[in-house]
Write a structure and sequence with these properties.
Layout (H helix, E strand, L loop, with lengths): L7 H9 L6 H11 L14 H10 L5 E8 L5 E8 L10 E9 L2 E5 L3 E3 L14 E4 L2 H15 L5 E4 L9 H11 L12 E5 L3 H8 L6 E5 L5 H7 L8 H15 L3 E7 L7 H11 L4 E7 L13 H13 L3 E4 L13 H9 L12 H4 L1 H10 L1
Parallel strand pairs: 4-7, 7-8, 8-9, 9-10, 10-11, 11-12
Antiparallel strand pairs: 1-2, 2-3, 3-4, 5-6
The structure holds S-adenosyl-L-homocysteine.
């Protein structure tokens, strides 16, 4: 059993069964979530007997570091981790996390699933389908490993790595609550962004959770017709449904929405499309992130010239829409998200799993919801 999965309250109950004093739970929690211990042996203010009991009953560290890549300018590091082996599988799945060092602080981009079943056309992380959801503990561990190896505080988190976070709702929420808990790393919710391809039902639910996180929407198209070509999820939810849900999120939380828009030459990057996009967003408290699409070798998508990108941006600016162009940092270490993991899987002939085929997603809304609750 994974001890990192317990909240402080749950750990207090758990420790009672060992006939230990309640304050021991707080000490253990502190070792795990503040001092970021990787081993029970590090917990030197506990008796040897208790450490041995913990060792016997629980696991602590969920990740094995397989590879690290550091960009030439040292701004970006990518970490390839292996998860603990699950079920019948010979080896644990691999996931990727990224550390970005900005002037304003250190930001970590974490994965929420091993693989993804959303099937977005331009994305490398979905090509092998979904292997499995990550637990909250596995999400925490990505941050803990990186903070530990960096020796500096992580101040920002973006849940924008592999996976669709809202497709793993329960564990995502547990992660958000634990990472922002004052008994742990206490990262401000305002410094946490969760990115979704637009699972409207879960966006609506998230609005009711009383959180202060930023919601980022992967929009990528100015109308449903183009969106459906790029993102299978657009067959299930229209842009209007997504925007209504965004408005609701803003009303409830006061947090403005971020919209991500990957610019793909000849598909969604014309000036008319910029006009169309600005009509959608006009008057909405939001921020637009334009991302020149990162090439992946399995697809022919590419971005247009710098001039074309700037002109697209200008159209939005003229309408007073808050917009930035997001450049991938550390491009020399293979910028496109998910490529480190994908390369590893290709080299090791790891196949997509049957459950990971994203087609199931669009067939039946209720079934997807049910899958989620159980998983
Ligand atoms: N599933 C979530 C988060 C994962 S991806 C989501 O869809 O938002 C994080 C962001 O990177 C998303 O906006 C995604 O659409 C974008 N992205 C994925 N592959 C990309 C690529 N090759 N080029 C540019 N952006 C990409």
């Amino acid at each position: 059993m994974d001890i990192k999965e317990f909240t402080l309250k749950e750990l207090e109950k758990e420790i009672e069964t060992f006939e230990e004093k309640k304050f021991r739970a707080r000490q253990i929690y502190d070792w795990i979530h503040k001092k970021l211990a990787m081993d029970f042996e590090e917990m030197t203010n506990l008796s040897k007997g208790l450490r041995q009991k913990l060792e016997k009953n629980y696991t602590l560290n969920q990740l094995e570091l397989l590879d690290t890549l550091i960009s030439g300018d040292k701004s970006t590091s990518k970490f390839l981790f292996r998860l603990k082996k699950d079920g019948k599988k010979r080896q644990g799945s691999v996931i990727e996390s990224v550390l970005m060092k900005y002037r304003h602080g250190n930001s970590v981009c974490i994965s929420s699933q091993a693989g993804c079943r959303m099937g977005c056309q331009f994305c490398a992380s979905t090509l092998h389908g979904l292997e499995r959801n990550l637990t909250a503990s596995e999400m925490l561990d990505q941050v803990y490993h990186i903070q530990r190896s960096l020796g500096e505080r992580i101040s920002n988190i973006v849940v924008m790595g592999t996976g669709e976070p809202l497709d793993n709702y329960k564990e995502l929420l547990r992660f958000l609550s634990m990472i922002s808990d004052e008994n742990g790393l206490h990262i401000s919710q305002r410094n946490i962004t969760v990115s979704t391809c637009g699972l409207v039902e879960y966006m609506d639910k998230l609005a009711e959770e009383n959180l202060q996180i930023t919601l980022a929407i992967s929009l990528h198209a100015p109308n449903d017709e183009i969106r459906r070509k790029l993102m299978p999820i657009a067959k299930k939810y229209s842009i209007q449904e997504i925007l209504t849900s965004c408005d609701h999120y803003f009303e409830k939380t006061g947090r403005r929405i971020s919209f991500e828009y990957s610019l793909i030459a000849g598909i969604n990057d014309s000036l008319e499309q910029a006009e169309e996009l600005s009509k959608l967003l006009l008057g909405r408290p939001c921020h637009v992130n334009l991302i020149p699409v990162n090439k992946i070798k399995e697809r022919t998508f590419d971005h247009g010239s710098e001039d074309r990108i700037q002109k697209f941006k200008l159209v939005l600016e003229k309408k007073h829409i808050n917009v930035t162009i997001r450049r991938e940092m550390g491009a020399d270490i293979n910028a496109a998200c998910g490529q480190l993991r994908k390369g590893y899987m290709d080299r090791n002939n790891i196949e997509a799993t049957k459950e990971g085929k994203h087609e199931i997603l669009c067939k039946d809304r209720r079934r997807t919801q049910k899958d989620n609750q159980s998983g």
